[in-house]
Design goal:
This protein is mainly beta. Strands 2, 4, 7, 8, 11 and 12 form a six-stranded mixed β-sheet that branches. Strands 1-3-5-10 form a four-stranded antiparallel β-sheet, with helices on one face. The longest helix is centred in the first third of the chain and has 16 residues. The protein is globular. The N terminus is likely disordered.
Amino acid sequence: MKALVAIVAACLVASVAGFHVKYIPCKGDTVEAASVAFIDINPCTADPCNLKRGSTYEISMNFETAAAPASIAGIETHLYGIIAGVKVPFPGFNLTNACENSGLTCPLSAGQAYTFAIPIYIDPKVTIDIECVVEMRLVDSATGKDLTCDEMQIKVVG
């Protein structure tokens, strides 16, 4: 009986936690002030995540800030879709202040672990099934430098 309870509990945790998606650091010469442990998209079960139009998903990122600077007072969120090499703002995304409604409390302290989570809505106005790269960038508001920048594949489906 205990084994059955443990298996059910493990399945429930796995279904709530999301799926660790494959991601890569953004291309270019960005120097990041944080290291990413993992990125989840919930609900998602495989790479690339199939995100259905008209639905809301949560992207969460676990990261640790570098030893310096001592603190980061404010963070901006930038979310883009990259299609055929063209970067455009992600449709329907308007949460630019990462210190609000994302699980982060600013200022961030150096050398600490954090979880950042945001909802993304897949606009039904996107009328075609398309696979694209999503770029998620957290930027130090004071310096304009990247805290982290990562890219992951998704597929928008009907």
